[in-house]
Amino acid sequence: MAGQICWNVENSWFNTFVYAKIAPSPSIVSWMVGVSAAVTTFATFFVGTLSDRKGKRKPFIAVGYILWGLFTIAFGAAEFFPKNPFILAAIFVISADAVMSFFGSVGNDSGFSTWTTDISNEHNRGKLGGALAAMPVLATIFGSVVSGIIIDTVDFFPFFIIMGGTVMLVGIFTIFNLKDSPTLKPKKDEKGFLHQFLSVFNIRTVKENKELFWVFMVILVYFIGFDVYFPYITIYFANYLKLDYTMTGLIQGAGLLGAVLLTMPTARFIDKGKSPAVILFALVANFIGLFVITLSSKIPVLLIGVLGSGIGYVLTFQTLIAWIKNLYPEDQRGQFEGIKQIFFVCLPMIIGPSIATVVINNFGVQGVIDGTSGMIPTESLFLFSAVLTSLTVLPLIPAYKLNKARIQSIKKGVEM
After folding, report:
1. How far apart are CA 7 and CA 142, in angstroms?
2. How far is CA 191 from CA 196, 197, 198, in A?
């Protein structure tokens, strides 16, 4: 939960902070999101391989979370960085976000996420996926509602101190309380770290894990569309619809809470191998929700739209997490978390915001924020995202066929 709150702070409020305190520039946001995504992916590969070799996740989780929180606070110091020349301020926030993302990946992506795979199995990962999918949504609810109130009350820097400090405390708590899986053993390549690190980049790996890689493609297409609108949703509410941060947080929080409650019963369908059907339903809900957001600036309409898109996001995330964990090779879980990050974080967070920059610059409106002019996103961003996320159906078809064949094979093996 603490980690997801920190990611929420980065994904929602870092971008809003840049618009409010640096400049209303979608290009800075695009660069910041893209660079941090590349850094995150590298860190997950590197530390994932290292944790596989060591047969330990706990040290990486603890150290990662502590430094993650520390550099979240450091990012907030960008507010006091000279704005002239503008390029130096932009470079500072991009670099600070990248460093924070590196340690976030060490603690959360390569550490904690792999640890959850170690301690679970194929029979309970639907429930685990539900819990893990609820975390970013609950974090968004907490982060949106509480963050909006804090920022409206004391401004950004104290807010970053509070959030970063919370994550640091959880990292310290982890040192004394978290335990590695008793079945986790070191997996060392006798040819050395570099050979083991590069071994996963092999066409044979794809051939041996076809279903997994098609699921990765499902992740890629969906999250490209998702990252077109999500980094800018708070900016849209605050700067285009002119809502304060508290109301912005309440709309997102209430809609997403409803989404979590409505998606809880789906765990049993995921555990029964019906992941493709769940994702198809999620895509429909996501499309309707994003479309509804574009219809009106009235609060009830926005709540319905956020609810629909929230259901789509939570169900997709929950289902994909459980699906891929069932397909990871047991002795390369850390490394495969790195591969997941390419499709889940790196490429979507580079491609999605790049598309968003083009959309905002061509279909946005000119605005002035804190004395600086720039482009503000409009409803068009959500329409583009709705269309792009719907294309997830294309890789879902072969993933469904391979999933069906695997489940039938398992059933035949049990009957024999």
Report:
1. 12
2. 7, 11, 11
- With contact defined as beta carbons under 8 Å apart, do 170 and 6 qualify? no
DSSP per-residue letters across 277-330? HHHHHHHHHHHHHHHHHTT--SHHHHHHHHHHHHHHHHHHHHHHHHHHHTTS-G
Domain 2-182+191-415 sits in which CATH superfamily? MFS general substrate transporter like domains (1.20.1250.20)
Interior/surface letters 343-355, b for 16+ CB within 10 angstroms, e for the rest: bbbbbbbbbbbbb
pTM of the entire structure? 0.72
pLDDT (tens place) for every residue of the chain, 416 residues total = 888 888 777 766 777 777 777 777 777 777 887 888 888 888 887 888 888 888 888 999 999 999 999 988 888 777 777 666 667 777 888 888 888 889 988 998 888 888 888 887 777 766 776 677 677 777 777 766 777 788 878 888 888 888 889 899 999 999 999 998 888 787 776 776 666 666 666 666 667 778 888 999 999 999 999 999 988 888 888 888 888 877 887 887 777 777 777 766 777 777 777 888 889 999 999 999 999 999 988 999 999 999 899 889 888 888 888 888 778 776 666 667 777 878 888 889 889 988 998 999 899 888 766 666 778 889 999 999 999 999 999 999 999 999 888 888 776 665 54
- Whether the CB-CB separation of 240 and 377 falls below 8 Å is answered with yes
CA 250 to CA 148: how far, in whole Å?
8
- Greatest alpha-carbon pair distance for the chain in Å reads 73
C-alpha to C-alpha distance for 60 and 78, rounded to whole angstroms: 27
Size (the chain), residues:
416
- The answer for residues whose C-beta is within 8 angstroms of residue 362's C-beta and 6 or more apart is none
Closest CA to 126 of 313, 336, 272, 302: 272
- The residue among 192, 135, 143, 59 whose CA lies nearest residue 317 is 135
295 three-class SS? coil
SS3 at position 375: strand
Asked whether the beta carbons of 362 and 161 are under 8 A apart, the reply is: no
Residue ranges of the domains in the chain? Answer: 2-182+191-415
Burial class (CB in 10 A: 0-12, 13-18, 19+), 200: middle
Burial profile 25-44: b = 16 or more Cβ within 10 angstroms, e = fewer: bbbbbbbbbbbbbbbbbbbb
CB atoms within 10 A of CB 68: 29
